[in-house]
From TrEMBL:
Record InterPro entries: Aminotransferase_I/II_large, HTH_trans_reg/aminotransferase, PyrdxlP-dep_Trfase, PyrdxlP-dep_Trfase_major, PyrdxlP-dep_Trfase_small, Tscrpt_reg_HTH_GntR, WH-like_DNA-bd_sf, WH_DNA-bd_sf
Pfam short name (any one): Aminotran_1_2
Co-factor(s): pyridoxal 5'-phosphate
Protein's recorded name: Transcriptional regulator (GntR family)
Protein family according to the UniProt entry: In the C-terminal section; belongs to the class-I pyridoxal-phosphate-dependent aminotransferase family.
Keywords in alphabetical order: Aminotransferase, DNA-binding, Pyridoxal phosphate, Transcription, Transcription regulation, Transferase
Domain of life: Bacteria
A GO molecular-function descriptor: transaminase activity
Length: 482
């Protein structure tokens, strides 16, 4: 539960009474409905920066007013036993919330999503560009160059703006991918593409092979669609792609999801030889591939090998690209490239769910992709900055965590996949760091058994904040090993 409110310490109204009235307002106003579990006394005290005794008094008075009750072993929850609530009984929204088809995020992920919007929190795991790396000035020029037309304020066709799809075709041709606009679908980022695929291309109970660890396993997209993610060790795929034959034979997996370029979270990149063998194996066993290629432009010293899609001559690969990692996550523009029947199916689903991506965002994206000077200049600027930030994080890690962990030197993207040398309780590490306003991504988010791993990111924090974060993380681990 998020409480985006703080008591006014300059007010003549006592702090405990301000808190009580705020909680009472949320309950009586229907924001916190019957059955809603309130934060624990300690948690609420920390959130509001007050003594626990203050929260004890607040909860006791709310109980006396009949608004909440204490449930042994569960905490304090809203109850329906006051006259004002009885007079206008609300639905049991908790029953609806818990009964929805779409599964809630993992607890870790929910906490991460909430904490990332606090300016006080040092974000050591965030997978997005820092605000200083976003092309504000160039995008202002893009907007100024747009001649606003009625079409920019209207719906686009199901597959997305034709001008943008043509621009995408031209853009990916430099990777060796040659397609027509009819084979392109514009989506609100690669995440939406995955959601459309899981709900539109599989029957309930289907199995999808996924590299382990994997970003996809941090989400509930598969389980919400009643699809099972079958985890295939990343090292097995990288060293012997033919391992997928046994997963196809023994577990009847119906598709393989892969991030072969700057893999998330490990930052591994498959060689050209591995890509060729992987595609050959999957074509031979008729196992379609979803290639997530959103990090491709974030290389430092040398461009990565060509995408799987560039080697695909049989329509075996569904290719995902995005503007989010290199230009702006706020544009919410990405694309799917694949056989026309698949694109038609996904486009129909997209029209049923949101009637297409923002027309203005598509117009901005189209300008970015067609102005090669703008894109090339900004991409190089981002690479240079990320490379410097990578070096800074590596130096800090060596200074403060050299005896605690080991890692590889990334050749691109955002992430460093750290393996701790000694076992620790990663749940405690996460919460202890968060208490110090440092946010990390435990490896268990990406695979349940990765208790000794942490995904760190050098894309967001710099300077003193980055140094503070690494020092705090090292201190927490040292204290837990003492």
């Amino acid at each position: 539960m998020k409480l985006d409110w703080k008591p006014d310490r300059s007010s003549h109204v006592p702090i405990y009474l301000q808190i009580k009235e705020e909680l009472k307002r949320r309950i009586e106003g229907g924001e916190w409905t019957v059955g809603t579990l309130l934060p624990s006394q300690r948690e609420l005290a920390n959130l509001l920066g007050v003594n626990r005794s203050t929260i004890v008094q607040v909860y006791e008075e709310l109980m006396a007013d009949g608004l909440v009750e204490s449930v042994q072993g569960k905490g304090t929850k809203v109850v329906n036993n006051t006259w004002n609530v009885i007079a206008a009984t609300s639905p049991d929204w908790q029953q609806y919330v818990s009964g929805g088809v779409f599964q809630p995020n993992k607890t870790y992920v929910q906490k991460i999503n909430e904490a990332e919007f606090s300016e006080e929190v040092v974000r050591l795991g965030t997978g997005e560009l820092a605000k200083g790396l976003l092309p504000v000035k160039q995008t202002e020029e893009v907007l100024a160059s747009l001649s606003l037309e009625a079409s920019h304020l209207s719906y686009e066709e199901a597959k997305g703006s034709l001008a943008l799809r043509e621009a995408v075709c031209e853009f990916v041709s430099k990777y060796g991918i040659h397609v027509s606009p009819s084979s392109v679908l514009i989506v609100s980022g690669a995440l939406q593409a995955l959601s459309l695929m899981t709900n539109g291309l599989f029957q309930a109970g289907a199995r999808v092979a996924v590299e382990s660890p994997s970003y996809l396993m941090s989400l509930r997209i598969l389980t919400s669609a009643n699809i099972r993610g079958v985890q295939v060790p990343l090292a097995d795929v990288q060293h012997k792609p033919s391992v997928l034959r046994q997963y196809k034979r023994q577990q009847d997996v119906q598709m393989f999801y892969t991030i072969p370029t700057f893999h998330n979270p490990t930052n591994v990149t498959y060689s050209t030889a591995v890509r060729k063998e992987l595609l050959h194996v999957c074509q031979a066993i008729q196992l379609p591939i979803i290639e997530d290629d959103v990090y491709r432009e974030l290389w430092f010293d040398a461009a990565p090998p060509p995408p799987l899609k560039s080697l695909d001559q049989t329509g075996n690969v569904l290719y995902l690209g995005s503007m989010s990692k290199i230009i702006s996550p706020g544009l919410r523009v990405g694309w799917v490239i694949g056989p026309e029947p698949v694109i038609h199916r996904l486009a129909d689903m997209k029209m049923q769910t949101d009637y297409g991506a923002s027309s203005i965002s598509q117009a901005i994206a189209q300008r970015w992709l067609t102005n090669n000077d703008w894109f090339t200049s900004h991409a190089q600027f981002v690479r240079d900055k990320l490379k410097n930030q990578r070096n800074a994080m590596l130096q800090l890690l060596q200074e403060h965590m050299g005896e605690l962990a080991e890692w590889n030197r990334p050749s691109g993207s955002f992430y460093i996949w750290c393996k701790l040398k000694h076992p620790v309780d990663m749940n405690r590490v996460f919460h202890r760091c968060l208490k110090d306003n440092v946010l990390i991504h435990p490896g268990t988010i990406y695979e349940g058994s990765k208790h000794s791993y942490i995904r760190l990111s050098y894309s967001y924090e710099t300077g003193e904040r980055l140094e503070y974060g690494i020092k705090a993380l090292a201190r927490v681990i040292h204290e837990m090993l003492a």
